[in-house]
Predict the structure of LptE superfamily lipopolysaccharide-assembly protein.
Amino acid sequence: MNYNSLFLKRICWLLCLSSCKLQPVYSEKYLQGNSSNLCAVEIESIPSIAGAELYHHLSELIPYCGVTKYRLTVSLSYLNSPSIIKRNSDIFRQTTTQLVNYKLLDIQNQQVVTSGQFNNIASYNAGTSAYTTYIEGESTLETMALQAAEEVRTRLILFFDELKRV
């Protein structure tokens, strides 16, 4: 009886999902409709080492087809704050907050087509060794750059999908 009710729940769940017209954002069929607009985005270089890492990830995620219709401008800022775990000891964590602002400009009329901002928060262990703490911090910044690039790409895909529907 338990297996039958579980099977019935799964069938109902699939029917509900198929009736809402949900579709995966990263499917090939979905990306083909948005790829012409997405590949027409030129990414401006971003100053700083973390900005170069973000530019690298964005250029991998957003293919460039040679025809430029839009220019993507991204700015980064960081805030580091230590968090002490145990008093009178060397054990603490460093929390890094990344603020990402992006603007998509139409090249022909220099108007802002879409813009937005979002935060990423990450933390890492800061130890007694300055080298270990530096390596952990750089690894955290690299991970945050990858997350920010994926977030910007997702927002652009959703924007171009809404633009196509209108």
Q: What stands out?
A: Residues 130-165 form the longest helix (36 residues). The domain at 28-165 is CATH 3.30.160.150 (Double Stranded RNA Binding Domain). The chain has one domain: 28-165. Residues 75 and 155 are 16 Å apart (CA to CA).
